Amino acid sequence: MSTLHVLSHSPFSDSRLDSCLRLCGAQDAILLCGDATYALQAGSAPFKALEVSALIIFVLAEDAQARGLSLPEWAKSVDYPGFVQLSIDHDKVNSWL
Amino acid sequence: MSRSLLVISRQAPWSGPSAREALDVVLAGGAFDLPIGLLFLDDGVFQLAPAQNAKAVQQKDVTANLQALSLFGIDEVFACSHSLAERGLSAPDSAQPLSSEQISQMIDRYDQVMTL
């Protein structure tokens, strides 16, 4: 069973990303949207944590673009239809509200 | 067969409506005999802290509702050991402590997961 973990809060203001990384299974993937895309801020602690996690990381392209964040090679860009497809492809979606 | 639901409650009891809403979801699910589990994670473990006094901030007591869980047939109540230890809380009577590895496996086992 695979879970898509959806994060939308800034990793600099709360612990969702840390906890998510701690609880993520090897089959799971993370989708960053909204302020969660600030985790792509190069050189930051969340950036490094994601880089070494070996998990599949998706990023909602427009949210990253809006914030002027560039996509590292370990992250995959998706649009809204891609977001829907990911929700279908995984057994369940866990939105960290 | 109903699909099983894991509710992850990760907000402190007095910070807003999230803690109560998570509990309401679980109790409603229990009333309909859904296979349901409740996990306290991050600040959510503060809901399990002893000697809380809701009246001091003119609110209703969440801990009383926690005690109702077993009456609604909800026996799968867990707390994250890591979150408990981080906050200096000891393992509560009302929830079974689980390691990060165990929680990861549990999320995998449930059909649906809701994090509040």
From TrEMBL, chain B:
<dbReference type="GO" id="GO:0016740">
    <property type="term" value="F:transferase activity"/>
</dbReference>
<dbReference type="InterPro" id="IPR027396">
    <property type="entry name" value="DsrEFH-like"/>
</dbReference>
<dbReference type="Pfam" id="PF02635">
    <property type="entry name" value="DsrE"/>
</dbReference>
<dbReference type="InterPro" id="IPR003787">
    <property type="entry name" value="Sulphur_relay_DsrE/F-like"/>
</dbReference>
<dbReference type="InterPro" id="IPR017462">
    <property type="entry name" value="Sulphur_relay_TusC/DsrF"/>
</dbReference>
<keyword id="KW-0808">Transferase</keyword>
<protein>
    <submittedName>
        <fullName>Sulfurtransferase complex subunit TusC</fullName>
        <ecNumber>2.8.1.-</ecNumber>
    </submittedName>
</protein>
<comment type="similarity">
    <text>Belongs to the DsrF/TusC family.</text>
</comment>
